[in-house]
Amino acid sequence: MPRAGLSPAAVVDVALGVVDEQGPDSLTLSAVAARTGVAAPSLYKHVRNIGELRSLVARRVLEEMTDALGEAIMGRSGDEAVAALMQAWRRYAVNHPHRYAAMPPAPLSDPALAEAGGKLMTAALAVLRGCGLEGEAAVHAARCLRAAMHGFVVLEVAGGFGLPEDLDTTYRLLQKTMIDGLRQGA
Predict the structure, then answer these.
(1) Residues whose CB is less than 8 angstroms from the CB of residue 142 and which lie 6 or more positions away in sequence, other chains included
(2) Which terminus of the chain is more solvent-facing, meaning fewer CB atoms within 10 Å of its CB: N or C?
(3) How many percent of the chain have pLDDT more than 90?
(4) Nearest to residue 127, comparing CAs of 42, 63, 66, 39?
(5) Looking at residue 162, what DSSP letter applies?
(6) Would the pLDDT of 56 be above 60?
(7) Where are the alpha helices (DSSP H) in the chain?
(8) Contact between residue 99 and residue 19 where contact means Cβ atoms under 8 Å apart
């Protein structure tokens, strides 16, 4: 019988705690079991294996990011929406660097993550539609936007910008560069 209070969602909550504190590579069934006070085999009542648990964690991260981006872009359009999307992306990655690192690079190609990844993509495409980009042009723009945001935040959280100049100023320049580029693509 499953332990009272333990459910797949509760297991994911504990797994996120492990990820937050120790990084995604530290996520093991043993680490989660130790925090829940059960033996590792007891977790199999809630998740099939470590692969499924990692997938559930990734889905939760995608959902959190989608919520954060959706909240940021709500009621905005055009340049303002792009800037809000970029700020929300960066804020999530900086505030939750280990969770961000737990997000797989190609969620749309993973059946377990396709729905959550699709919702995140839908939010980005809605912003781009407000910039006059649709169809194939919007997909190309979304890829460029993601590459720019992801590259910046990965370098930032890893301490890859060693010079003393202000990172917020650099990110605003990246935003302006992306917005100007999107205007030319529309």
Answers:
(1) 121, 124, 125, 128
(2) N
(3) 91
(4) 66
(5) -
(6) yes
(7) 8-22, 29-36, 50-73, 78-95, 97-101, 114-129, 135-157, 167-185
(8) yes
pLDDT band at 147 (very low <50, low <70, confident <90, very high): very high
How far is it, in rounded angstroms, from Cα 146 to Cα 141? 9
List, for residues 65-80, the tens digit of each pLDDT value.
999 999 999 999 999 9
Cα 143 → chain centroid: 15
**Taking Cα atoms as reference points, which of 114, 113, 138 lies closest to residue 124?**
138
Q: Is 86:178 a contact under the CB 8 Å cutoff?
A: yes
Q: What is the pLDDT of residues 98-135, one digit of tens each?
A: 999 999 999 999 999 999 999 999 999 999 999 999 99
C-alpha to C-alpha distance for 69 and 75, rounded to whole angstroms: 12
Whether this prediction's pTM lies above 0.90 is answered by: yes
Q: Does domain 59-185 have CATH number 1.10.3720.10?
A: no
Locate the domains of the chain by residue range: 1-47, 59-185
| Assigned CATH for 1-47 | 1.10.10.60
